[in-house]
Amino acid sequence: MKILVTGGAGYIGSHTSLVLAEEGHEVIVLDNLENGYQEAINRIEDFLQKPIKFYKGNINDTPKVRNILSTCEIDAVIHFAGLKAVGESSKIPLSYYMNNVSGTLNLLNAMEQENVNKMVFSSSATVYGSLAPFPYKEDFGRGQPSSPYGKTKVIIEDILQDLASSDPKWCFTSLRYFNPIGAHHSGIIGEDPKGLPNNLLPFISQVASGKREKLSVFGGDYDTFDGTCRRDYIHVMDLAEGHVSALENIASGISSFNLGTGVPYSVLEIIDAFEKASGKKIPYQIVARRDGDLPQFWADSDKANKILGWRAKKSLEVMMTDAWRWQMQNPNGYLP
Fold this sequence. Notes:
The chain is globular. 40% of the residues lie in helices and 17% in strands. It is an alpha/beta fold. The protein has a domain at 2-181 and 234-260 and 300-312: Rossmann fold, CATH 3.40.50.720.
């Protein structure tokens, strides 16, 4: 199939683009490069010896999106594009609603105009809200998230639900996932945040490599066994393969799937695992809690196992080793 990957030059998008191309799909990437890198696409092309069409642009640019859908004869869309930092979303909520919700509406409008009816949506476990029991299961429904970021995901899922109910031509799969980490085993692509990292692993990696002095651990007094937040960490390549499985099993209506390992790890456990993989000591300091963070949550992914035939395979040790390999081979990320 010819697949448009919005946000395809970002962290998860680039790894998914690589797997799609490996599986024989024709990949077309649209990315405004606010959080992504065209160099990631160049490296994938060199690695696979396959061309990937790249367009720099924003999903809010409806004429541009329509032109891509039409001229490239797109069969389906995998939609990653959007802002994604929980803490930041509480500080600049308007930007999150404009980028995530308005952008998705523009994308869907363009898809309708060009008769493209299939979408895999990059959602989030935050849609379950702050009161949901864990492990999270898809039949819990959508709750009240603790951050504007999570609320944008709920709004978008509601929009997709309404659209799917309005016309059986629409085919949507919403993938709710947790904390992607790691990198491609080759070290050619990985996570390279612009500015101060919002996610745990790239910050740890930069401390280990000497780029940063120490790690700030947000909160040490949560109701967990060691006082730090516990999360379901998943290897980004397992996650990428989940998107391809979802695409290849997409059906009329809307379906939601959790993609996770079902095993939560605390921040301190992640630090310990990275120290073992890298042989580096990670200095850290417990600081105040971060807005929007929940004490713990993890996935029940049985539905994805049974219906999509997908299962997370890579261990925490592999996640850490691959993340460190990426950092060592690319001390400046995608920059020279």
